[in-house]
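Forkhead box L2
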Amino acid sequence: HNLSLNECFIKVPREGGGERKGNYWTLDPACEDMFEKGNYRRRRRMKRPFRPPPTHFQPGKALFGGDSYGYLSPPKYLQS
C-alpha cells in the first residue's frame, strides 16, 4: 500500500536514523472520523447489478435481434 498517496496518513521519522528503508506512518488526527470501526478504505464499494458474460461472436447471427439488421456477411466482392 502506498500511504503517501493518502493525505490522511502522516510519515513519522524513525528513531536512530540510519539508512533503513521504509517508514512509520500514523493517522492524521484531523482524519480520525473518516474511518469507521477500523475500516481504512477510502470509499465504500458500490454494489453493481449482475451482468451476464458477453456471448461469443458467431458469423451470420443477428447482432441486435432484428430480422436482417446487424447480420454480418462477407463483402460482396468476396462472395462468389
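thats it. The beta strands are 9-12, 24-27. The CA atoms of residues 9 and 27 lie 5 Å apart. bye
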